Amino acid sequence: MKQELIDRGVPARRIIMELKGRDTLQSVRCCHVIMERRGDCGRVVCCTSRYHQPRCALLLRMLGYDVVSPRVPTSRGRLSWFGVARLVARELLALPYDAALLLARTKA
C-alpha cells in the first residue's frame, strides 16, 4: 500500500505505517496514538484491503479523523469467491463489535 500511495503522488515522508496492531481495532488505536503524537494528521488515507476498508475507515471517523478511502487493488489472490464472501461476512459482524469497544474505551 505504501508503494501505491507513492505511485499516486503522496510523498514518502508523509506516509505513516502502523506495524504493531494484530487486529483492526488494535491497528486503529495504534494509528490514533501515532497521529495524536504528530499533531498534524487531520486527514487520513485508509489503505487496506477492499473488503476491510469500510470498517477501518468507520473506526477512524469515530475517532474524529477526516478519512479518505481511495480505490485499492481488488485482487483476491488465491481466495475463492466463497473465501471472499466469508471475509466480507466477518467484516459485517465485526463492525458493530469493534465500534462498541472503541466507544466504550473512548468514553472511559
Provide an overview of this structure:
It contains 4 helices and 2 strands. It has 108 residues and is mainly α. It has one domain (2-107). The protein has a two-stranded parallel sheet with strand order 1-2. Helix 3 links the parallel strand 1 (43-45) and strand 2 (66-68). Helix 2 (24-38) packs across helix 3 and helix 3 (53-62) packs parallel to helix 4 (81-107).
**Beta strand count:** 2
Mass-distribution shape: globular
- Content-based structural category: mainly alpha
Quote the beta fraction.
Answer: 5-15%
Q: Return Rg in Å.
A: 14 Å
What string gives the helices and strands in order? Answer: HHEHEH
What is the averaged pLDDT score? 85
The helix fraction, in percent, is: 40-55%
Alpha-carbon distance between the two ends: 33 Å
Number of domains: 1
The helix tally amounts to 4
The biggest sheet, with number of strands, parallel, antiparallel or mixed sense and barrel status, is: 2 strands, parallel
The unreliable regions are: none
The strand order across the widest sheet is 1-2
